[in-house]
Amino acid sequence: MNSEKIIVIHSKFNEDIVSNLYMGVEKSLAERKFDTKNIIKVSVPGAFELPYMANQVLKSRNDIKFIITLGCVIKGETAHFEYISGATSNALANLTIQNNVPILFGVITSYTRDQALARSQVNFNEVNNYNIGYNVTEAAFEIINSVSTLQNN
């Protein structure tokens, strides 16, 4: 029995959109019949705190299959958007490179709320549905499979 954990770190900011992203994660995992007992969900206040929590998870656990980070940053009238988006994506990229655990960037960075909503749709039966949470979960499994192929060849 595989007891590797999937860690989902999600931002509370723009919670309605992030909740939709988590529904995408759940949909992907359900399709793969992944045991929900092996999912650990952790919340943080905003997207900026995602890298810190990912680092804490990496330091405290050795049973991680992958980490999914979920958040939503929508452009406002100040440069805050650029600082948060850039710092968060760069920090998560660095953590990913420095560790043997894939960390997936499921953070919507959009100019408008409508764009964010479009990237967090939960109409999974529609052909044009687009949900970042679902997509990054699928990408995580692709990465795991690619690494496994690399190690076995």
Nutshell version of this structure?
The chain is an alpha/beta fold and 153 residues long. The protein contains five helices and four strands, in the order βαβαβαβαα.
Task: Provide structural commentary.
The protein is an alpha/beta fold and 153 residues long. It contains 5 helices and 4 strands; from the N terminus they run E-H-E-H-E-H-E-H-H. It has a single domain (5-152), classed as 3-Layer(aba) Sandwich (Rossmann fold). It has a 4-stranded parallel sheet with strand order 2-1-3-4, sandwiched between helices.
Furnish the topology, listing elements before pairings:
Layout: E1 5-11, H1 15-31, E2 39-44, H2 50-60, E3 64-74, H3 80-98, E4 103-110, H4 113-118, H5 132-152
Parallel strand pairs: 1-2, 1-3, 3-4
State the name of the first-level CATH class: Alpha Beta
Task: Please state how the strands of the largest beta sheet are arranged side by side.
Answer: 2-1-3-4
Largest sheet, if any? Answer: 4 strands, parallel
The SSE order reads: EHEHEHEHH
Beta strands, count? 4
Mean model confidence by pLDDT: 91
Compute the gyration radius: what is it? 15 Å
CATH superfamily: Lumazine/riboflavin synthase
What amount of the residues lies in strands? Answer: 15-25%
CA-CA gap between termini? 24 Å
